[in-house]
Amino acid sequence: MTWPVVPLNDLQADEPRAITDGPFGSNLASRHYTDHGPRVVRLQNIGDGSFIDEKAHISQEHFESLRAHEVLAGDLLVASLGEVLPRACLAPPALGPAIVKADCIRVRLHPDVDRRWVMYAMQRPEVRRWADSHRHGMGRPRLGLKVIRQIPVPLPPLEEQRRIVELLEDHLSRLDAANAGLASSMHLLDALKRSVLAELHDGDLVPLAELAWDSGYGTSEKCVVDGPGVPVVRIPNLANGIVDLSDEKRVADVNADVSSSMLTAGDLLIVRTNGSVDLIGRSAVVQDGIDAAFASYLIRYRVRKERVRPAWVQAMLSTPQVRCTIEPLAASSAGQHNLSLAKLDPLKIPVPSLEQQDTGLARLREVDGNAASLRSDIERAQSHCAGLRRSLFAAAFSGQLTAEMTIA
Questions:
Q1: Model's pTM, two decimal places?
Q2: Across all residues in the chain, what is the average pLDDT?
């Protein structure tokens, strides 16, 4: 079935500034935000087909000065910045008075087009490929307003749009239910790991400083991809309790002296500074074969192995009991969470006998192995759901969905 394809710009309502982005610069800055009042639609509100209700407000007076950027219920909201482009949703009926922020595009659509049809058109595989070829920016991919106006939208008759959307939403609701079940299973796996860690939290409480014979901070030398110097372990390299150097950066200056930051097997690394409280206190044990230095964002402890296994300390740092102690230690009013040796040294770790540690670690490895297998199954199922979703959109926007498409 062949339908005309028109640019998004041709579907706007017949009124001034039917397509607009948010105010830039000093017109809307952090100082303008208030505890209540009209809403500000930001990038984090625009989900891929759904509005995410994270609230930000401005005063009524400031809202009146920015009415050219106003959002009404049913307006199409398009994110111009992010990994997934174009990402779009509809403004919900209960939004109330609101404006869009910079990098958020508001599109008021003509009544002769179904709003849901246009929103779903943003998710079809052809448009995602089209956007990939038109976006710019390396670190933060972007589609400018001029490009967004040109997003291609197939345009069947209005009644056909509505009929296809009804079928599409029926199938999507089933896929969403399946994905929700898979996500719930993932959460249960995480809860199981936390439960086992909580049970292992046993033994005499000993300050971290007493368990280590050496500690210190890492190198602040600049490191880059394909640098000539030694690899540097950074925060992203701490994964699942070990060091993963698949995302590797190296010291930029081959002559830099990083000898005091070189790692040895059994070293314990702890994240000491980050904007995310979830990352603060994340830890990993350096395994054999890692020939690298470590970055200044991390703290290193070398534990007394005759008294405690490095892996035991790492496991205890992940327990709910210790996590709830670490987070207040790192709290910062400036938004950047920080730990230091002075804060970590007194942190008390439960230390049973070496035999009990070995038994507990063996149990933890068994749980991790079983969880990894289940997680792999869940990820395969999620990938299958994603494939079905792409096929569903391809069918909907080619007219095949109205021919009784069945999702296997």
A1: 0.64
A2: 91
